[in-house]
Automatic annotation (TrEMBL):
It holds the Pfam family E1_DerP2_DerF2. Belongs to the NPC2 family. GO terms for biological process: sterol transport. Transmembrane segments: none annotated. This is MD-2-related lipid-recognition domain-containing protein. GO terms for cellular component: extracellular region. It comes from Darwinula stevensoni. GO terms for molecular function: sterol binding. Residues 19-145 form the MD-2-related lipid-recognition domain. The lineage of its organism: Eukaryota, Metazoa, Ecdysozoa, Arthropoda, Crustacea. Gene3D superfamilies: 2.60.40.770. Keywords: Secreted, Signal.
Length: 150
């Protein structure tokens, strides 16, 4: 049984995307385990305008809570630009676990992210956090992306 768990962990990490800890905002109370951005293992992630990218984020909660909401910011030349293009109710997009959740519970959040045709071709850093009803970040990561023409 231990062999299967180790094998699964190695398989999952082989397809994980390399991300950085958040440099701005608050310190997360939970722990990021894994981020998988479809088609991207090593940033900058190349994302063509008009595409839809699947994200899968595995994390451990830092405290018990009732709700989760994404907070996404694009950072361009040091300027933070909020992005509200994903559903606010992250609990509906959990593929492992549910809300309410317990302290130290491992959850997996899955989301599609649309690269709108109006996004300019540019390299930016994206900060993605999941916060609870008390505005505490349970996880946060930053990843460099490059929006390209289709």
């Amino acid at each position: 049984m231990k062999f299967l768990i180790v094998l699964f962990a190695l398989f999952a990490s082989a397809f994980a995307t390399t991300v950085q800890d958040c440099q701005g905002g608050q310190t997360p109370i939970g722990r990021l385990i894994r981020v998988d951005i479809e088609g991207c293992q090593t940033p900058p992630c190349i994302l063509p305008q008009g595409s839809i990218v699947n994200f899968e984020i595995e994390f451990e909660t830092g405290e018990a809570g009732e709700d989760l909401e994404p907070e996404i910011v694009a950072i361009l030349a040091g300027i933070e630009i909020p992005y509200d293009g994903v559903p606010k109710e992250a609990c509906e997009d959990l593929i492992q676990g549910d809300c309410p959740y317990a302290k130290n519970e491992v959850l997996i959040y899955s989301q599609e992210f649309e690269i709108l045709p109006i996004f300019p071709p540019v390299e930016v850093t994206v900060r993605w956090a999941l916060k609870d009803e008390m505005n505490r970040w349970h996880m946060c990561f930053e990843v460099d992306i490059e929006v390209t023409l289709p």
